[in-house]
Amino acid sequence: MTALSVFQNDDGLWAVTAQGLVVTGLTKESAEAFAEAFLRLHDEPPPAAT
Q1: Beta carbons of 15 and 29 less than 8 angstroms apart
Q2: Sign of dihedral through CA atoms 38, 42, 44, 49?
Q3: Cβ neighbour number for residue 17 with a 10 Å cutoff
Q4: I need a labelling partner for 18 at 20 to 30 A (CA). Which of 32, 37, 39, 49 fits?
Q5: How many CB atoms lie within 10 A of CB 35?
Q6: Residues 4-50: pLDDT tens digits?
């Protein structure tokens, strides 16, 4: 599973971090949605070759 961190900065905005990735300036809802989409994208097995 991909290690991901979602936290609130001192400025009150939210950030999402992962290895090689930092996304800042988000609302709480945006940070949670980004984290969910990121995990779904990176944790799915690749599609089977046809």
Answers
A1: no
A2: positive
A3: 15
A4: 49
A5: 20
A6: 999 999 999 999 999 999 999 999 999 999 999 998 988 766 666 66
